[in-house]
Amino acid sequence: MPAPRFPYRLIATDLDGTLLRSDDTISARTRAALDAAAERGAAHIVVTGRAVPWTKRILAELDYRGLAVCAQGSQVYDAGAGKLLTSVTLDRRVGRQALDLLEKEVGTVAVAASCDGLDGQVLAGPGYRVHEGPLPYVPVEDRETIWQQPLNKLYIQHDQLDDDGLAKAARAAVGDLVGVVMAGEGIVELLPLGLSKAKGLALAARRLRIRAAETVAFGDMPNDVPMFAWAGHGVAMANAHEELLAVADEVTAANDEDGIAVVLERLLSRP
């Protein structure tokens, strides 16, 4: 008899802190679990805050040829074709206005910007602390430089407010102009209003003719909350932010302990 179909038709996984381990690799165990689920009929979609240029390397290492939702839902990328299918940009006038209003409330913020497109650069303005690692960026001395081309989103940092405090202050000051998400350590972002991972995932799933109820989603940060609300089942990693843990249907092991594989293997073992 053929093996039964996987309980979900779609597996949606965040990247950093979820699919990726702390060393930016994907374990052999997790790869094997995803492959086994695929053999049983499940599609896999990467859903990440990273824009396409920062995601392509990981997808290539996975030999991933499906759809990927990038830049907090603003981009749907066909990895097999190397083609950007959808892209939503931040109105730069609105972005400027939001920063001005925010700085009136909290003082100066350091700013970086993610430029639109398959090869869009990340421009880091004065004082912006960039995470060391393999993700390329371009330092700019004048913040005005970031407004010269279409943008997916802005990154903001503050010398005194922590990530949660800055995100809370930004929502209070400019939440009616832009979306505000905390996507990881030192990563608070301003997005087009109404944009979320859930919006991008819904677009990608529609292309595959898969419903929300047929989706299991994995994540670790507050920017994954809308994705969990959309999906049929939301699984938070043990290392997840408390805001996501509070809304998860299930909590699995940490990303460094093959948390995705733990859940997929259990689902694969169902008769």
Largest sheet: 8 strands, mixed
- CA-based shape: globular
* Count of helical regions: 9
The SSE order reads EHHEHEEEHEEEEHEEHEHEHEH
Given as residue ranges, the uncertain stretches (5+ residues, pLDDT < 50) are none
The computed structural class is alpha/beta
In whole angstroms, the N-to-C terminal distance is 12 Å
Strand order of the largest sheet: 5-4-3-2-1-12-13-14
Q: Determine Rg (CA atoms, Å).
A: 18 Å
Bin the helical content: 25-40%
**Average pLDDT figure:** 93
Number of strands: 14
Strand content: 15-25%
GO molecular function: hydrolase activity
Protein name: Cof-type HAD-IIB family hydrolase
Keywords: Hydrolase
InterPro entries: Cof, HAD-like_sf, HAD-SF_hydro_IIB, HAD_sf
Describe what this molecule looks like in 3D.
The protein has nine helices and 14 strands. The chain is α/β, with parallel strands linked by helices. The protein has an eight-stranded mixed sheet, sandwiched between helices. A six-stranded mixed sheet has the order 8-7-6-9-11-10. Strand 13 (233-236), helix 8 (242-245) and strand 14 form a beta-alpha-beta unit. The longest helix has 15 residues, at 92-106. The protein is globular.
